[in-house]
Design goal:
Blueprint (H helix, E strand, L loop, with lengths): L10 H17 L17 H4 L3 E2 L6 E3 L2 E5 L3 E4 L4 E2 L5 E5 L4 E4 L4 E3 L8 E3 L7 E9 L6 E3 L5 E9 L6 E10 L2 E3 L6 E10 L2 E3 L6 E4 L3 E3 L2 E3 L9 E5 L5 E3 L2 E3 L5 E5 L5 E3 L2 E3 L8 E3 L4 E2 L2 E3 L20 E3 L1
Parallel strand pairs: 1-4, 3-6, 4-7, 5-8, 6-9, 7-10, 8-10, 9-11, 10-12, 11-13, 12-13, 12-14, 13-15, 15-17, 15-18, 16-19, 17-20, 18-21, 19-22, 20-23, 21-24, 22-25, 23-26, 24-27, 25-29, 28-29
Antiparallel strand pairs: 2-3
């Protein structure tokens, strides 16, 4: 008898296969869905990352502010904002507040106050990121009421006061504070101030009061309204100023260190016409030697004292 096309399996194998299939079916649940409406598992962006839009409805202002943030949380702009005379743009009165300008313009008008101001009651935890703040009648950001401050990717320009003013501890990084009538930045306390641009401010580009680290910033032509200003003015204790590039204005300093026990190394100052005050160091300042580089055709670095000093501050 021919058995071609027929196959057989041992009884043990068939039993094992039956057990596996049974387990799969039992774990899969019933084939008939339960009665009633099917509920959604969809989550909104607000569920995933709760944030509040800044508006007259959600963050209404008061007599001296266009918007007011009285509760901790994350807030964001949904469009450009234009200020009102006699008012600040945003007043923060709560701790632990994040403000995302979301790439929009936040602009003041004649007679307006600060762009963003922090009340003394909001004494900890402020973050401001991603936008343009300009044309305010006071400071672009006045965060002197807060501690633990982080400001990143902000341009604060053309303000009557100072671009960015902070007190306490925190970080200012990747910002542009330019064309303000007072200072580009005023930093009191212990901050990291890194990778910023401060250009054409009326007084100092960056003013430091305290033991901050100021590194890898570019400051140009500051002091346009007040003589003897500086690209970087260090008037504190224990600051470190390193790796900054400065083009000084006429009758101003590149780096003016009037504080005590500060460390100033590895900076570059390009002299403006009419003054040679590239650096001024207090007697307690720990500073690398100042190396004056003047190009002479065919000589290069030849004959320049300390030209290979690892902590040299250069002027040219």
């Amino acid at each position: 008898m021919s058995h071609r096309g027929s196959y057989w399996l041992p009884a043990g194998v068939l039993c094992g296969v039956s057990l596996v299939v049974g387990a799969i079916l039992s774990s899969a649940g019933p084939l008939d869905p339960p009665g009633g409406a099917v509920s959604s598992t969809y989550k909104t962006l607000g569920d995933i990352e709760p944030r509040t839009p800044i508006s007259a409805t959600t963050t209404p202002g008061d007599a001296d502010s266009l918007y007011r943030i009285p509760a901790s949380g994350s807030y964001y702009l949904t469009g450009n904002v234009f200020g009102t005379s006699g008012k600040s743009g945003i007043e923060v009165t709560a701790v632990n507040v994040t403000i995302d300008l979301n790439g929009f313009r936040f602009e003041g008008v004649t007679g307006s106050l600060d762009g963003i101001v922090v009340a003394s009651t909001a004494n900890a935890g402020l973050t401001v990121t991603n936008g343009l703040i300009r044309f305010w009648g006071g400071d672009g950001i006045d965060a002197t009421g807060a501690d633990y401050v982080r400001i990143e990717n902000i341009t604060s320009s053309d303000n009557i006061g100072t671009g960015l003013r902070v007190v306490g501890r925190g970080l200012i990084r990747g910002c542009n504070a330019s064309d303000n009538d007072e200072n580009g930045m005023v930093v009191a306390g212990t901050f990291i101030v890194r990778d910023n641009v401060c250009d054409n401010n009326g007084q100092d580009g960056i003013e430091i009061t305290g033991g901050s680290t100021v590194a890898d910033n570019f400051c140009r032509a500051n002091g346009r309204l007040v003589t003897n200003s500086a690209g970087i003015h260090v008037d504190g204790f224990g600051a470190r100023v390193q790796g900054n590039s400065i083009t000084k204005a006429v009758n101003s300093y590149g780096i003016n260190a009037t504080g005590s026990d500060d460390i100033i190394v590895g900076n570059f100052v390009m002299n403006g016409t009419g003054s040679s005050n590239s650096y001024f160091f207090n007697s307690t300042t720990a500073a690398g030697p100042v190396v004056s580089v003047k190009w002479q055709s065919g000589l290069g670095w030849t004959g320049i004292t300390n030209n290979n000093h690892p902590w040299a501050n250069f002027t040219y």
